[in-house]
Amino acid sequence: MATYQDVFARYEKKYKLTLSQYAALRRWLQDRMEVDSYGLHTICNIYYDTPDFQLIRTSLEKPVYKEKLRLRSYGVPGGDTPVFVELKKKLDGVVYKRRVSLPLREAKRYLAYEGRPDLDCQILREIDWALARYPLEPKAFIAYDRIALFGREDPDLRITFDCNLRWRDAFLDLSQGDWGQPLLDKQEILMEAKLPAAMPLWLSHVLDRLQIRQTSFSKYGACYQQNLFPALLSTGGICVA
């Protein structure tokens, strides 16, 4: 398999941009950042949670520590295509992402509690622990089209722009296509600044000049609040005190 980064520790700041803000920001960034080798590409995710959505409910309460587990692919995979099992944690504002690459069919068996991969590494042991602690099952598919930029002087500085966010709660298999219902207004673009440390002063000035303000937004959280939770209420699948 190709080499990949399996451990991340960084700050992530999110922003919702209008199309005009996006166009203006791209002009400002063109001398300092460049598009990575993937260009515009599609990211597909299956989010795993407990039957009563414990992980996302806890996350939305904004605790000091929170975690989520997802299965991710770049594009629509086949059974033998490498995908990523990712454990994402956030502690005191720092995001820690740890992931292992497995063929899709093997990753699906593992996450269905049907057999552990023949792989001995610390990251997989951490994922083992999460699977043992929570009775996890696939809950939502979320996909989006992304352009990622990295700093010319500091490659660890990354900015991503996500559009065409979509979701579904049926056919929860990455090989079933990247279709879904809209999750974000088509006139909005979700931007994430992924920072190894403090935001560069020049970038802060650009965002301020364009009146781009930081927001709190979770793709899975928005999917739960806007779609999954209302569906549970309508079917009596959850009790609200």
Protein model, in words:
With 241 residues, the chain is α+β, with helices and mostly antiparallel strands. The protein has a single domain (7-235), classed as mRNA Triphosphatase Cet1, Chain A, CATH 3.20.100. Helix content is 27%, strand content 38%. It is built from six helices and eleven strands. The protein has helices at residues 19-29, 54-60, 104-111, 122-133, 201-209, 219-235, and strands spanning 7-18, 33-35, 41-49, 65-74, 82-91, 94-103, 137-151, 158-168, 181-182, 188-195, 214-215. The protein has an eight-stranded antiparallel beta barrel, surrounded by five helices. The longest helix is centred in the C-terminal third of the chain and has 17 residues, at 219-235. The chain is globular, with a radius of gyration of 18 Å. The termini are far apart. The model has no long low-confidence stretch (mean pLDDT 93).
CATH class annotation: Alpha Beta
Beta-sheet strand percentage?
35-45%
Query: Would you report the number of β strands?
Result: 11
Number of helices: 6
> Can you tell me the overall shape?
globular
Q: Regions with pLDDT < 50 over 5+ consecutive residues?
A: none
Whole-number mean pLDDT: 93
Strand order of the largest sheet: 1-6-5-4-3-7-8-10
How many domains make up the coordinates? Answer: 1
Q: Biggest β-sheet, characterized?
A: 8 strands, antiparallel, barrel
Oligomer description: single chain
The CATH homologous superfamily: VTC, catalytic tunnel domain
Protein name: VTC domain protein
Domain VTC: 10-225
